[in-house]
Specification:
By secondary structure, this protein is of the alpha+beta class. Helix content is 27%, strand content 39%. The protein has a single domain, classed as 2-Layer Sandwich (Double Stranded RNA Binding Domain), CATH 3.30.160.
Length: 109
């Protein structure tokens, strides 16, 4: 399977002493004790997500479930509009960072 890189927006919140990284485009989250730690943990979660969905043959189905659209003319994927982070979040969370991560998504064969 070929892949193409997409930008994946990730919001980082602080709640108490913990940092939480979240992207609604894949409904993935990670936590850590520092910004560096949460970034490392989120990258690990994203890697595991990619490995497992590709291995199980469910990546396409999961992307569709999360609102991604296949652009058949370009044989690539486009993410849904980024609108709410995170849904129903705790009022005690403070937004600390908003970053764009690269995300390899499959290209139609």
């Amino acid at each position: 399977m070929k892949t193409v890189m997409n930008s994946l927006p990730v919001a980082v919140f602080k709640e108490g002493r913990k940092y939480i990284a979240y992207t609604p485009l894949l409904d993935l989250a990670a936590q850590g004790s520092s910004l560096k730690d949460v970034q490392k943990n989120f990258d690990e979660v994203l890697d595991i997500y990619m490995e497992e969905t590709v291995k199980n043959g469910t990546l396409k189905q999961d992307l569709l479930k999360h609102g991604w659209k296949m652009l058949t003319s370009q044989q690539s994927w486009t993410p849904p509009r980024f609108s709410q982070i995170p849904p129903n979040h705790n009022q005690n969370m403070e937004l600390k960072a908003f970053v764009m991560r690269s995300f390899p998504s499959p290209v139609a064969a």
